[in-house]
Amino acid sequence: MKTENITTKEPGMAISPIREWQVYKQRPLVIAGPCSAESEEQIFGTAAELAASGRVDLFRAGIWKPRSRPDTFEGIGTIGLRWLRQVKEKYGLPVAVEVATEKHVYEALKHGIDAVWIGARTTVNPFAVQEIAAALRGADVMVFVKNPVNPDLELWIGAIERISKAGISRIAAIHRGFSSWEKSAFRNHPRWQIPVELRQRIPDLPLICDPSHMGGDRLYIEDLSQKAMDLAYDGLMIESHIDPDNALSDKQQQLRPAELEGILSRLVLRSSTSSDREFLDTMDDLRRQIDIYDELLLDILENRMAVAETIGKYKKEHNITILQSDRWKEVVNKAVTKGTKRGLTPEFIHTILEAIHQESITRQMKVMKEE
Ligand code: PEP
Ligand code: MN
Questions:
Q1: Is 290 left (phi over 0), alpha (psi -120 to 50) or beta?
Q2: Prediction pTM value
Q3: Looking at ligand 1, which residue's alpha carbon is closest to its atom 8?
């Protein structure tokens, strides 16, 4: 069955609204199930409870697992597809698996799988994504594209485009965070600004958050899910296992079905708009204030850069280097001390000042090169 009412905003992107996907029950769309299919008991036990919750739109289970190290559990393989087909028949839950090669796609389609997702380690590889896209051509399945492991929005959009060009209209992005050398409590750094930018670029594309792989620990799932809802995400992909402590992969981040149900029932869902006159007037007023401050910021930056250029000319005349590390350290320290007193975090001040410093250096380099 094909979905009606397809809208096209990006050239070449025909995206079907998520509310019209046959599986959609209510916001958020929920994809839940174990990290990996392990045994019939585990799959049917988990599916039975998730189906009984009435809150799950799609049942997930990985059967080919991309593991960092060999000799760990690499998935149950094709037999898992038969179990998933039985989940669909027995509990009426549409089913989803991860695909990483064209062979995976053909196997999944042959077994009547309803949805596939492309994992973070696959999205990074345009050859693999293209091969998957070619195998999906003409198939009536939902396709979820996870962000690549590295924070590269173009690569993510490129993968989505490849799938879209293969004629898939029920397509969505999954934000699961980005791997990073920076120390963080999370397994994968969220970098929320990247999916926010994706939303700006492709407004019709449904956006799903995967707090399981982002947090890496069940402790963080509720907060991350709420944050995603507050950022107007359309859905959640959450790992759920009947017996997480004995899971063969990702045991730390899987929730029992009852715990998942609890989290879903506590989510606060805010609407993206309101027709309340007073609310709209107050928002207009506050936004006007923001616009004025943004204007002021631009004026200040323009003036600051003009001074930086003058300094550049002066340094050139006196044959002095552009970079003055001690002076810069002093500037940053002073700003951090003053800014912290005003309630600005040191990270924020560092980010802003680094951008300003970089621009000043670029300007002064230009000045140095001038005849
Ligand atoms: C998964 O969903 O089980 C998985 C492997 O995720 P990711 O690609 O986000 O690491
Ligand atoms: Mn997993």
A1: alpha
A2: 0.86
A3: 119
Residues 123 and 147 sit within 8 Å (Cβ to Cβ): yes
Ligand 1 pocket, residue 175 CB under 6 Å = no
Closest residue CA from atom 5 of ligand 1: 119
Question: Which atom of ligand 1 is nearest the CA belonging to 237?
Answer: 2
CA–CA separation, 5 vs 21, rounded Å? Answer: 11
Distance 214 CA to ligand 1 centre (A): 10
So where are the chain's domains?
A: 18-266, 277-369
The protein residue whose alpha carbon is closest to atom 10 in ligand 1 is 120
Query: CA-CA distance, 358 to 17, in Å (whole number)?
Result: 42
The number of the ligand 1 atom at minimal distance from the alpha carbon of 117 is: 2
| Helix (H) / strand (E) containing 115 | strand 115-118
Using the CB atoms, write b or e for 208-239: b if 16+ within 10 Å.
bbbbbbbbbebebbbebbbbbbeeebbbbbbb
CA of 107 to the centre of ligand 2 (A): 21
**Minimal CA–CA distance to 90: which of 36, 48, 52?**
48
d(C-alpha 343, C-alpha 158), whole Å: 39
Question: What does CATH list as the number for 277-369?
Answer: 1.20.59.10
At the second CATH level, the architecture of 18-266 is Alpha-Beta Barrel (3.20)
- Walk along the chain (371 residues) in steps of 10 and give the mean pLDDT of each run: 48 88 95 98 98 97 94 95 98 98 98 98 98 97 98 98 97 97 92 97 97 98 98 98 97 98 97 92 97 97 96 93 88 95 96 94 92 74
Which residue among 36, 209, 210 is best mutated to probe the pocket of ligand 1, counting the most ligand atoms within 8 A of its Cβ? 210
Residue 147 Cα to ligand 1 midpoint, Å, equals: 10
The 10 Å Cβ neighbour count of residue 150 is 13
